[in-house]
């Protein structure tokens, strides 16, 4: 049984802390936001924060885990109604494009975190790499169903297009960026189909 606290319950306080961290870390950057700011905006005590998280690093890891779960769920939902392998790839592309066009878009949470934690051995950088490996594996598996040529290069191409669109989408017109991104996705699909036909 969870212990109750004056902040409204153990799970409620943790959710409020994490929700606050997610919002501010994404909008303003991780290093720019201190623990005191999160405590103040989440309306909890310092003791409550440390009851749920050992420190800022663990809170950042929870933020990235929530982002990872959200993206996994988003891509699963996007593929759900797609009937053909090509359409599954397009659905993933459209889900990414929708995110770029959404209000408050500030780029990729994982690329942003990697820029702030460049040491490859750091746990936060490791969490970024784990997410990116999952994403690469996911799109490569989808592209392997389109054509018969090895799908590794196409998967890496897709990820590179996505990274570029994520970076550019918060710097210039997101409509133009996502249109260009989707044209790139179609180009990958055409190349896969052409390689299959040629074989």
UniProtKB/TrEMBL annotation:
Residue span(s) of domain HTH tetR-type: 11-71
Q: What is this protein called?
A: TetR family transcriptional regulator
Record-level Gene Ontology MF annotations:
DNA binding
Return any one Pfam family short name.
Answer: TetR_N
Q: Which residues cross the membrane?
A: none
The cross-references to SUPFAM superfamilies, in alphabetical order and at most eight, read: Homeodomain-like, Tetracyclin repressor-like, C-terminal domain
Keyword Transport found? no
PANTHER family, per the entry: HTH-TYPE TRANSCRIPTIONAL REGULATOR LMRA, TRANSCRIPTIONAL REGULATORY PROTEIN
Q: Which organism is it from?
A: Streptomyces griseofuscus
Q: Which residues bind DNA?
A: 34-53
Keywords from the named record? DNA-binding, Transcription, Transcription regulation
